[in-house]
Amino acid sequence: MAVYTTIEDQEIIDLLDRYDIGQLLSLAGIAEGVENSNFLLRTDQNNFILTLYEKRTNEADLPFFMGLKQHLSAAGVNCPLPIPDSGGNVLQRLAGRPGAIFSFLDGVSYRSPTAKQCEKLGKILAEMHVKTADFTQTRPNALGPDSWQALLASIDRDPEDLPPQLRAQTKDLVSDIIDRWPDNLPIGTIHADLFPNNVMFVGDELTGVIDFYFACTDILAYDLSICLNSWCFEKDGSFNITKSAALIAGYQSVRPLGAAEIEALPILCTGSAIRFFLTRLYDWINTPKEALVKPHDPMEYWGKIRFHSRVTGASAYGLW
Asked: pTM of the full predicted structure?
């Protein structure tokens, strides 16, 4: 369960006294997510989300995240909008943590999205890229290629329950990908974590995008590659080219990819798979066995890395 910090009853009552969003009805922890503590906040006026930012979220980055959501919301992208208190402040401090209250989005996320839902995802991703072209705030990608070697070095042993020599194989692979990483592609604001659990649907209608806490300034097509990895592989590890083609078609209906972006898709997909493999491997080793949050299996992304390493062109992703 993704609730790391508990809130005393009087603390939430005192917090709501600074807002004009109604009287407290209930506050319940939300199990989704692994980075921060999230709560469903119900008042007699509406439902809201209360987020407390835990240690892995840099407090100095919060103004960027708040500004990005405000910018996207003003541009017509449905995302959680920070709610200001009576003094105009969106950032608060509660239970010793920074926090904020956000608007509530209707809908559910799907662990196994359909091709139609993938197409809608591609479209909203491109809309976010286009609509943030005039967003002036920037944030470096703390988990981009420049971080991978240091992250791997921080993993000081091979897990007993994973294949041997995993770190040595990864070291060679990371070096190769960094050497071939493109430096001539369009850059802008990216979500960088647009997994299926961060996109809300009612049926096939996409109702909103959530969880912007990895958002940063980086290669736009890298954001697309993250989605190809997280939306287009089936539970058995096979790649679903129908979903991939639908996702890319949805993206290109709003923002057509350039020739250099298309050519770079295999290396970008390999790189984004490495990024999530490394963070999962780190968590797999360092998360205490008794922790409430169960780490994701890094080997899921090792299989994706192997798939992309065999790809010779964008046609493997349904782009003809």
From this structure: 0.93
Identity of the residue numbered 89: N
Ranges of H-type helices in the chain: 9-16, 62-74, 115-131, 145-153, 166-180, 220-231, 241-252, 259-286, 299-309
257 to 67, 83, 115, 203, 288: CA distances (angstroms)? 27, 35, 20, 28, 43
Q: Write the CATH number of the domain with boundaries 115-317.
A: 3.90.1200.10
3-class DSSP state of 211 = coil
Phi, psi of 309 (to 5 degrees): -65, -20
Distances from the Cα of 155 to the Cα of 285, 289, 297, angstroms: 8, 17, 15
Q: Where are the domains of the chain?
A: 9-103, 115-317
**Strand ranges of the sheet holding 37-43, from the earlier edge strand across to the other edge:** 24-29, 37-43, 47-52, 97-103, 92-94
Half-sphere exposure of residue 58: CA atoms within 13 angstroms, side-chain side: 12
Overall fold of domain 9-103? Phosphorylase Kinase; domain 1 (3.30.200)
Interval 152-184: pLDDT, tens:
999 888 777 788 888 889 999 999 999 999 999
Distance of CA 62 to the CA centre of its chain: 15
